[in-house]
Design brief:
299 residues; alpha+beta; Four Helix Bundle (Hemerythrin (Met), subunit A); three-stranded antiparallel beta sheet; 10 helices; 9 strands; 43% helix
């Protein structure tokens, strides 16, 4: 991977050496490096960062392991940092409540309309208090995962697994997390200063906060892959999960690709942090979410 005249050039190594593609750096949002033998020049990485692209590096298990994220050149980045630090606890808790409610609603949308689990999830959204002090999110997750796949199909969610469906989920989450972090930095926000997540070893606490209501988008895509017969993380399933960045979502009264919607969401978050608004505008998928036919293919 090299760069020439601000064109990212992808070259095939010997013995079949040759130029594979040449893409304007300004048109690139993400580069995912998954081949352990891949090489790249410093200039290529520097120009990608200059144009605001994110580079995702995968480990030996083909799962995203690290990010190369642009340092924000936002004109008010220092003020944003002070505003994030000064955000009062009640405001943080109210924002987290909105995130949890949005996540549970998206989980419910992933289940059949006539299912009891969907009705129970929607009922739980009315029980979420400021800061989710009663941990409704965890209760909803238990109910959701038990009904996530087609009826009668058991599934155990393991975030530490690198195999099967869990690996596809982890890959999808990591891709969306990178997109969220990119949008946060572009808005002048620091991704380490979270609303709810507080792990001192996590430099992306705020990104993890904002990722929560987007997880069901990944889960919908992974379920469709599994119902279609794809049960391992491979190039075909990776392409499908990467395409989530262009799925149509609605943010407020505007609809468009997820990558664009994320910038609108982060602008809304900035207004909430500044005290100009109380309602956080989060992406909502506008496409049908329950898609797993026929049921026999899921068993």
């Amino acid at each position: 991977m090299a760069v020439k005249l601000d064109q990212l050039q992808l070259w095939r190594a010997a013995p079949e050496s040759g130029l594979v593609a040449s893409i304007p750096c300004e048109d690139i949002g993400f580069v995912v490096v998954d081949n352990p033998g891949a090489t790249y020049s410093h200039d290529a990485l520097a120009r990608l960062i200059h144009f605001g692209a994110v580079v995702v590096f995968c480990n030996e298990k083909h799962l995203p392991a690290g990010l190369l994220l642009p340092l924000s050149d936002h004109t008010e980045v220092v003020w944003r940092l002070h505003e994030q630090i000064a955000l009062r606890k009640p405001a943080r808790k109210q924002l987290w409540r909105q995130i949890v409610v949005a996540k549970i609603r998206s989980q419910a949308a992933n289940l059949p309309e006539d299912s009891s689990a969907r009705r129970r999830l929607l009922a739980l959204t009315r029980e979420v208090k400021s800061g989710d002090v009663t941990n409704v999110e965890a209760h909803a997750a238990k109910l959701y995962w038990s009904a996530w796949l087609c009826p009668g199909t058991p599934f155990h969610r393991d975030p530490n697994s690198s195999e099967g469906v869990n690996a596809m989920l982890n890959y999808g989450y990591a891709i969306i997390r990178a997109a969220v972090a990119r949008a946060l930095v572009s808005a002048g926000l620091h991704p380490a200063l979270g609303l709810h997540h507080r792990n001192r070893g996590n430099p992306f606490c705020l990104a993890d906060d904002m990722l929560e209501p987007l997880r069901p988008l990944v889960e919908r895509a992974v379920r469709a892959l599994k119902c279609g017969g794809q049960t391992v993380l491979e190039p075909a399933s990776k392409r499908e999960l990467l395409s989530l960045l262009t799925v149509t979502v609605r943010v407020g009264d505007q609809a468009g690709p997820l990558m664009v919607g994320l910038h609108r969401t982060m602008a809304s978050l900035v207004r909430c942090i500044q005290g100009e608004e109380n309602r956080l505008l989060l992406p909502v998928c506008v496409e049908p979410t329950w898609a797993c036919e026929p049921e026999e293919t899921c068993t």
